[in-house]
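Moderator note: this is an archived Q&A kept for reference. The question asked for a predicted structure of one protein chain; the sequence and the answer are reproduced below.
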Amino acid sequence: MVLDSILSSPVRRSTSFRKQFSQNELSWSVLLQRHRFLLTTLAILTFLCTIYLYFAVTLGGTTSCSGLTGAQKALCRLEQAKTSVTRGKLKIL
């Protein structure tokens, strides 16, 4: 079978993964060079997520109905919904 040929292939060695590389190949500079694309992508993604979260918190978190309860809170939310629809922004409360 194919599985038997893979398991018995001469490429498979019994030495550990770390012993296959010399000390120079396991340095931080080599690791950074090999994964430069992934690290750059991760940095850009982190930057964009930070900007998104900043604007989501500052623009979307303004609620004036936070201290109200019951019917007063419902009326306040209804009033906010009316003003957001008239401005052309439909918000889900």
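Archived answer notes: The chain has a mean pLDDT of 75.
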